[in-house]
Automatic annotation (TrEMBL):
It comes from Aquibacillus rhizosphaerae. It holds the Pfam family NUDIX. Its EC number is 3.6.1.55. Keywords: Hydrolase, Magnesium, Manganese, Metal-binding. This is CoA pyrophosphatase.
Amino acid sequence: MDTKRIIDKLKQRQPDILGSQSFSKFAVFIPLIKQDNQINILFEVRSEKLRRQPGEICFPGGRIDENDKTAKDAAIRETSEELGVIKKNIVDVTPIDYVVSPMGMIVYPFAGRIDNPETIEPNTEEVGEIFTVPLTYFLETKPEKHRLTLGIQPDDDFPFDLIDGGENYNWRTLEVDEYFYNYEGKVIWGLTAKIISHFAEIIQEDFNV
C-alpha cells in the first residue's frame, strides 16, 4: 500500500465526530406560533407518567429512529406525535447548530412554525401540559448560568499501571454552564434553555429589542 491509496481512501469518507456511532441521537423542534399579533415559543411539560425526566420542560422531540431518514424527519414525526398536529401544519423546519453533550448525546435542534395551533391536542401519555412564551422574552432576557463540574470515575479494574502517574494521574475535569430561565413560575433549564438561548442569539440582530 502506498500513500496515494491511503489519501484516496480518506477522500472517499465524509468526516464525522469520532465515536459518534455510540452516541444517542435526538432531534428537537422549536415551535413558533403566531398568537395575539406576536410570535410565541411553545414548550411542553413532560408527563409525570414518563420514566425519564418527568415534569421537566422541554421542546417536542425525541430519539432519532432507524426509520427516520433524517434528523429533520425525526423532529417532525416526534412533534406530530406529541402535539397531535398533522405534519403539513409543521412548516419551514430549519436546522440550527447541533449540540454534542458530555453525557453521550448528539441533539439536532430545528426551528419552524406550527400553523393552525388551535388544532394542537397533546398526547397525554407523553405531555403533561403545554404553554407558550413570547419570543421577545428570550430576546430581552439573558439566562442565569450556574457552573457544573464533571469528574472522572475509573472502573475498579482500570489499568493504572499502564499510565504515567498511576492512581495519582491528574485527570482533567470538565466544567459546563447550566442555563436557567424563570418565566412566570415556569423554570426552563438545561439543554432546552441552552438551545433557546442560542436560537435567540442567532436572530437577535433582526429584531429591534
